[in-house]
Amino acid sequence: MLFALGFKDIEPYDLSLSLGKIGICASLNSDVEITLDEFLHLAAFYIRQRDETEEIDKLFQIFDGGGEGVISFDKMKKVAQDVGLNIRDYILHEMISEADKDHDGVLNISEFRDVIKRNNTYF
Fold first, then answer.
1. CB of 101 within 8 A of CB of 44?
2. pTM for this one?
3. Cβ neighbours around 92 below 10 Å, total
């Protein structure tokens, strides 16, 4: 996923250090499973070093998938599964509901930006 965001040159050692900075213990010789929330924190850690809005928009495009301009439950579930996360449906629904300010059942780019900025101390 980080590769898709344009972070193509992250060395394993640097990634291990970055995970440590957000509270995830990882060694170079081990597989680590992280939650979607932890992934968002990790992505935010790298994104803060770039133009904030542009990078959040890139992340939105990954979730949006079809380019419809919204993130639905199905799209969020697909991204979670694509990165190997098994997140219960009710948790995904709660995540969307928490950020869905206009109560249309999906996240538009503005709502997505707000939730990323609100939930990350990195911005």
1. no
2. 0.58
3. 19
